[in-house]
């Protein structure tokens, strides 16, 4: 296991590193997840094995520290991830990033373009979702609590609403980290993650579940050079549901 401090207080982000050839692949998990649980099978897939791979846990999640004073905005997550890539001498890297991790990866590429060679986004959040939701699962459901409510007993309501698979990693998250990350993910960025993605000048691939029936704004993304791939036989967790299709999508454009 590797680590580096990413805050003035010395809070550590930790990652699992698989040795191999450059350029480096960096795997970034979603809200309440952890990269080892979500990406180990993918990183060791026969089509992808042999490349240096960093399975990074964002601050507040998985193996990383859980500071209560960190903002947990998408920008703060992106800057902390940039510190990891610099400490690991991993840039410019190929980022394979899921859900909230995809939003963080987009912001990273916009703020630190020298560190990112390519984005592979797995059903990533591209737009804000400010519509109020019943308190419960998902970023909008978590964000519907106040922080005080969530820390008191709201997290128990979320625990009872999510799948056992998600709770397996969500229970490792700092509660402030989970809540604030959800709030800022629902709030989005300015410009939006979608607008940032459209303006990036690097190879970009976006994967989404085929059963969704289409990706909102797909024509605009395609016109901007984003390769959009509908993945069969998967839900939101593409790396777990169909790692073969994910691996094929990654190597197709290399």
From TrEMBL:
Domain of life: Bacteria
Signal sequence, start to end: none
Gene3D superfamilies: alpha/beta hydrolase
Pfam family, one: Abhydrolase_1
Keyword Hydrolase: yes
Keyword Hydrolase: yes
Keywords: Hydrolase
Domain (AB hydrolase-1): residue spans on this chain: 26-177
GO molecular function, one term: hydrolase activity
Name this protein carries in UniProt: Alpha/beta fold hydrolase
Organism: Kitasatospora cinereorecta
Biological classification of the source: Bacteria, Bacillati, Actinomycetota, Actinomycetes, Kitasatosporales
